[in-house]
Amino acid sequence: MPNKNFEPRDQRIDDALDTSGVRHRATLKQEWPLLLLLLFVWGALWQDFSLGNMVFGVIIALLIVNLFPLPPVVLSGRINAWYCLKLFIWFLGQVFAASVHVAWLALVRGKRTRSAVIAVPLRTDSDLIVMTVGHVLTLIPGSFVIDVDRSSSTLYLHYIDIESPADVEKARAGIRDIERRLIMAIGSRDEYEAIKSECGPNFDARKG
After folding, report:
1. pTM greater than 0.70
2. Is the CA virtual torsion 25, 30, 35, 37 positive or negative?
3. How far is CA 164 from CA 99, 111, 114, in A?
4. CB-side exposure of 44: number of CA atoms within 13 Å?
5. Rounded CA gap, 119 and 18, in Å?
6. Is the pLDDT of residue 128 over 90?
7. What is the DSSP secondary structure assignment for residue 74, as one 8-state letter?
8. Which helix (H) or strand (E) holds 207?
9. 26 with 69: CB under 8 angstroms?
């Protein structure tokens, strides 16, 4: 997890092309979660999960992933079930707390509530971590991802209740904390060790 220098990383061409310049193709083993998701979306759209419709959905899903191929998402090969559970519990608590906060802003402050668009450069180079941080933020009321600079792993967010530069830095710190939790749960071994080194003696106290 190298330090950021804000220089483009060529959109991670190495993830998409091999040494001969030929586009990488994901294998069925890599694509089966996407296929299951597409199959679920197909059934939900038709509100029909019958066997015949699911078989047709499988055919449609296979056509989609072959006609519109994406570079395979490179997984870290590491997952910590305990940190995943803690992340899920923490996420539920954040959704509840943020919902109460947004309701209070709507009822008490109304149009006087100020918001801002902020940029948050993440520390990770993993597309999976960047994507998941964005999804977590979007699911928590009060923030919404409006753009992603993949070359520098920078998220651009609309953030509610921002009144000062100090609020901006607090928001950025909170977003990097989400990144830290995700790295601890599903990040690579190198990223996990980098987080430990960054936290130093406080690592044990911040494991939650």
Report:
1. no
2. negative
3. 22, 17, 10
4. 6
5. 32
6. no
7. P
8. none
9. yes
| Mean pLDDT for the stretch of residues 8-23 | 49
Return the sign of the alpha-carbon dihedral for residues 163, 168, 173, 179. Answer: positive
AA letter at 95: V
Q: Which two tokens stand for residue 182?
A: 């995700």
Q: How far apart are CA 129 and CA 60, in angstroms?
A: 28
Question: Which pLDDT score is estimated for 2?
Answer: 47
What is the distance between the alpha carbons of residues 127 and 144, in angstroms, rounded to a whole number? 18
Q: Is the pLDDT of residue 6 over 50?
A: no
Contact 141, 105 (CB under 8 A): no
Long-range contacts formed by 145-153: CB under 8 A, 24+ apart: 146/117, 150/11, 150/12, 151/8, 151/9, 151/10, 151/11, 151/12, 152/4, 152/6, 152/7, 152/8, 152/9, 152/121, 153/4, 153/121, 153/122, 153/123, 153/124, 153/125
DSSP output for 17-55: B-TTSPBP---HHHHHHHHHHHHHHHHHHHT---HHHHH
Task: Report helix, strand or coil for 56.
Answer: helix
Angle at 178 between CA 186 and CA 105, to 5 degrees: 150
What whole-number distance in Å separates Cα of residue 127 and Cα of residue 89? 24
Looking at residue 85, its amino acid is: L
Angle at which helices 165-186 and 189-199 pack, to 10 degrees? 130
Q: Is 23 left (phi over 0), alpha (psi -120 to 50) or beta?
A: beta
